[in-house]
Design goal:
76% of the residues lie in helices and 0% in strands. The protein has helices at 2-25, 31-52, 64-88, 91-98, 101-111, 119-136, 141-144, 148-170, 176-198, 211-239, 241-245, 250-261, 269-285, 288-300. The longest helix has 29 residues, at 211-239.
Length: 309
C-alpha cells in the first residue's frame, strides 16, 4: 500500500504543480491550442518510450470501440469542455467544481456496482471535498453566482469520471501505458485538427515563446501529462476508478504550494487547515483508516487459548 501512496503522491505532485505552470502558458498560447499540442507531444513521447523499451504496441485484440470511447470522454470532451469553461468562470469556482470529481466518480461507481464503499470510506470523499472548499474559497460571494462556464467545467469532470470506468475495462487486456499512448495521441490529433481548421493562425504563438516557457511546456507535456496519466491509469487498473479518484484531491495541495513557489502567491491559515482535511479525506477514503483500526483491534484482541483434550 505504501508503494501505491508513493506513486499517487508523485502523480498528484506533477498534476498540482502543472496547474501553476499552465497559468504561465495561457498568457501566450490560446488554451485549446496549448491543450492539443502538449497532449499530442505527451502521446508521441509515450510511443517513443514503448519503442525504446521494445514493448508491444499493436494488439490484435485491441478493443478499439472502447479505446475510442475512452478517448472521446477522457481526452477530447474533458479537455475541450474544461478549456471552454475556464474562460467563462473564475479560477476559484473551477477548483471547487474539479474538487467534486472524486465524489462524482464514487457515486457513479456505487450506482453502477463497479465498487462497494463503506460509509466510512465514502465519508472520506466528503471530508476531502470540504477540505478543498476551505482551501480555495476566500470569499463566499465569489462562488455563489452561477454562470454557463460552471456547467462546462462540471460536464468536463462527469465525462472524465465515466472515462475512468472505460479505462478500467480496457486495461484488463491492454497495458495502461499502451492505452494512454493511444488515447493521448488520437484525442490530441482531433483537437489539433479542429484548431488548424478554425484558428490556424493561433499556432504562431509558439514562435514567440522564450526558453523558460518552452521548458514549462515540455515539463507539462512530458512529465505532468505523459508520465502522470500513465501512472494514474496504471493505478486505475490496480485499485479501481473510485479508489484512485480520491487521490486527485491531493493535487489541490500541490497546486497551492505551486502557486506560492512559482507564482509568488500567499498561503493563509485556512488553506493549511483545508489541506489537512484533504489529507485526512484521502486516508479515510482509500481505506487507510479502516486498515489501521482493523490492525489495532487485532493487536488488542485477547489471544485465543487452545483447548486441550
Amino acid at each position: 500500500m505504501l508503494k501505491v501512496y508513493g506513486i499517487m503522491i508523485l502523480t498528484m505532485f506533477l498534476w498540482g504543480s502543472n496547474v501553476s505552470l499552465l497559468k504561465l502558458l495561457v498568457f501566450d498560447i490560446p488554451p485549446l491550442v496549448m491543450q492539443g499540442t502538449r497532449i499530442f507531444l505527451a502521446g508521441i513521447t509515450l510511443f517513443l518510450i514503448l519503442i525504446v523499451m521494445k514493448k508491444k504496441i499493436i494488439y490484435k485484440e485491441m478493443p478499439w470501440k472502447f479505446v475510442l470511447l475512452a478517448t472521446l470522454l477522457g481526452v477530447i470532451a474533458h479537455h475541450s469542455l474544461l478549456a471552454t469553461g475556464i474562460e467563462q468562470t473564475t479560477a476559484v469556482k473551477t477548483s471547487l467544481i474539479l474538487g467534486l470529481a472524486p465524489l462524482i466518480t464514487a457515486i457513479i461507481a456505487v450506482a453502477t456496482r463497479a465498487t462497494s464503499l463503506t460509509r466510512l470510506r465514502f465519508t472520506g470523499f466528503v471530508v476531502g471535498f470540504l477540505g478543498i472548499i476551505i482551501a480555495v474559497v476566500d470569499d463566499v460571494t465569489a462562488v455563489t453566482a452561477f454562470v454557463v462556464g460552471d456547467v462546462y467545467v462540471l460536464a468536463s469532470i462527469v465525462v472524465q469520471a465515466f472515462s475512468f470506468f472505460v479505462i478500467r475495462r480496457i486495461t484488463l487486456t491492454i497495458p495502461p501505458l499502451v492505452l494512454t499512448a493511444y488515447m493521448l495521441t488520437i484525442g490530441s490529433s482531433v483537437m489539433m485538427l479542429y484548431n488548424l481548421v478554425v484558428t490556424p493562425a493561433s499556432f504562431a504563438a509558439f514562435a514567440n515563446l522564450d526558453l523558460k516557457l518552452w521548458a514549462v511546456f515540455l515539463f507539462s507535456a512530458i512529465l505532468a501529462t505523459a508520465v502522470g496519466h500513465s501512472l494514474y491509469n496504471s493505478m486505475i487498473k490496480r485499485l479501481g476508478a473510485a479508489e484512485t479518484a480520491i487521490f486527485t484531491n491531493l493535487s489541490t495541495i500541490f497546486a497551492l504550494i505551486g502557486a506560492v513557489v512559482i507564482l509568488g502567491e500567499e498561503m493563509h491559515l485556512s488553506q493549511i487547515f483545508g489541506c489537512m482535511l484533504i489529507i485526512a479525506g484521502v486516508l479515510i477514503g482509500t481505506g487507510g483508516l479502516e486498515e489501521w483500526i482493523k490492525k489495532r483491534r487485532q493487536h488488542h484482541a485477547p489471544p485465543v487459548s487452545e483447548s486441550t483434550t
